[in-house]
Please model this.
Amino acid sequence: MKRRVLLCSWALAAAAGCATGPTLEQRLLPFVGRGEGDLVATLGVPERTYEVEGRKFLTFEEQRSYVVAGAPSPYFGYYGRFGPSFAPPGYIVRTCEITFAVRQGRVESYTYRGDGCR
Model:
């Protein structure tokens, strides 16, 4: 019985797009108003920095790879000797780029972009 509950929970999480836990907005919002040192201590050294007109922009990047199971494919024939034929598994890479604006040593705002931001 316990195994069935675990599988059902996993299936629900997969159906919801693994939308468990806080959203990206909820995770980033607490950084607004904090010091630049706290930001770097928490997230690590930024990939890029840029300074203009008294503001500093710190950009952090995250990439994640996901394995994608093979799917029925006309390129490999729909039916092989032992049933449906599947394309070989592969992987996709999702990227998220988060940029924090810092003024006078304090995080002022943030923006993010990419298909891996969630």
